[in-house]
Amino acid sequence: MFQPVLTLILSLFIASASYATERVALVIGNSDYQHATVKDLPNAAQDARDVSQRLSSLGFRVHSGIDLTRSEILRLTQDVQKSLNAGDIALFYFAGHAVQLGAENFLIPVDAYGNDKETLRQRSVKLQTILAEMESRADRNIVILDACRDNPFDLATSTRSVGGATRGLVKIDAGVGSFVAFSTQPGNVALDGQGRNSPFTAALLKHLPSTEDDLHEVMRKVRRDVVEQTNGAQIPWENSSLIDRIYLAPRITSVPNAPPPPTPAPKQPVATGQFTHQVAGLDPNGDGFLALRNGTTSSASRLMKMVEGTRLQVLEQNGVWFRVRTETGAQGWAHSNWIRFVGVRSAQPQETCNSLWLQRNAIFARNGYCFQSARGQQAFSNLGCRIGVPAGQIPLSASERQEVQHLRSRETALQCR
Questions:
Q1: pLDDT tens, 136-154?
Q2: Do 231 and 108 share a domain, yes or no?
Q3: Is 173 contained in some domain?
Q4: What total of structural domains would you count in the chain?
Q5: pTM higher than 0.85 for the full model?
């Protein structure tokens, strides 16, 4: 029996001194296919659950979903993608069916159907599209596929190229800083195995906890185990252009006779009382916001996004972190690198129509809006934007919608056009 499990792990590493690394994982497992000829895929959901548990034990913040439809896969992927910050390590894991249609690879949701290539294409999720979206926000990407390579649907004779006659997913080239691995060589099928997990997933789970092995060494050990387990019938394969060593498990460094860590400095109050500070100095080519968090680490939960020019009242200081209050009443911690003292604001806001326009549209830009006007294209990059999605359908958080309304009201007061 062919391996009915697709494992897609996407690890994103954005190198930046601005944020400490946060480990984020998106894990999806599809077993209960509604229309496929082969419906019973118990290992898909089981592998996804096991990988979720393992990644969680390694310190990843895991988002998971089981038996998801096409719309649910796209929505969950976009939500996690939007939560990524510079320096993050993000994993995207998909277990279920995948298929090659023409020259492209598709992940198959549980509600997919079709007896011809075009119908199946429209009801599936293009792998290359997901990767392109993630690469637009990440410098380094890791993709690992453990998939059933034969199409699970009965297609017409005229489309034999996408049915059982086509074995293997089409090759994915790794760009600079990327790593792509398959559970078996191109043109072959992955085996299901007789145990709790597939041979490839079992080996992956075995070697993921290694704190001494980088990704390449982990995959070499996985390949050795799979070849031995399958008597050479399945040979994992990868394509890599990584420059730096990448470790999926946190490394443990032992220092003999190391002195005890210094006692952390006590929190020092900062005398203010007014909105004397503002967010300033953000990279115009970066995310375009400063995170307001519930703690003094970049792994603390993000409460809201603060754009350039957001006025702040500094309440307290702890090292390089400020506890602040926004003019809307939100409170939390923010890194002081992007907070500047500007003095007490006068009774009348010294704002211009242009500054308000830039603040409002920056919210849409960082959420993927494609600007059509010359002014918008000059001010913001459309790189990686959501083509064809109107502004009214761009997904904004509640705090972002509130900020947009606030900025519009200021524009109205200034009679901006």
A1: 676 777 777 777 655 666 6
A2: yes
A3: yes
A4: 3
A5: no
